Amino acid sequence: MSSFALTEESCWGGRPIARQIAEARPRSRVVVTGTVRTTETVTVGRSASYRVVLRDDTGELDVLFLGRSTVAGVGVGTRCSVEGTAQLRGGRLVVWNPLYKLEPADGIRGVNPSDQLPEREGHAELTTSRGSDETEHTGSSVDRPW
User: 3-state DSSP call for residue 21?
Assistant: First the structure.
């Protein structure tokens, strides 16, 4: 288990740290929390890399784990915080090999103070189906360069 903590400072090298994806700019430090929207294994150079699209209420950010075809615990629907320097690639912001921390999902036993799951009424039903725009791209084959 790691003992690191994500940066809590408001500035990094004299520049503000983006706390929401919409605030991120190329070459800026980001510390954002969101939900993994899609994952896929891609080729960067000659190596397999795990690409994750992280989404918060303000936008999307690509997260790239170089040299890895998967990252344990990081899949579609996972809440995750990442810290790193944003870069622009292919018109999208990407953070390469970030520090990351898996975040507890809402309503998980042990997360809320009462240690009880929320009542079902007023909460979305859990489902394994995805909408047409929420396709998960995973697998062991590396079939396209990124």
Answer: helix
φ/ψ of residue 23, rounded to 5: -85, -15
Let me know: does 39 contact 78? Beta carbons within 8 Å.
no
Total-model pTM? 0.70
Assigned CATH for 26-103: 2.40.50.140
Domain boundaries, given as residue ranges, for the chain: 26-103
First to last CA, the chain: 31
3-state helix, strand, coil in the chain (%, to 5): 0, 40, 55
97 to each of 51, 65, 69, how far by Cα in Å?
10, 5, 13
Beta bridge partners of 101: 81
Q: Along the 146 residues of the chain, how does pLDDT read in single tens digits?
A: 455 788 888 888 888 999 999 999 999 999 999 999 999 999 999 999 999 999 999 999 999 999 999 999 999 999 999 999 999 999 999 999 999 999 987 655 444 444 444 444 443 433 333 343 444 444 444 455 56
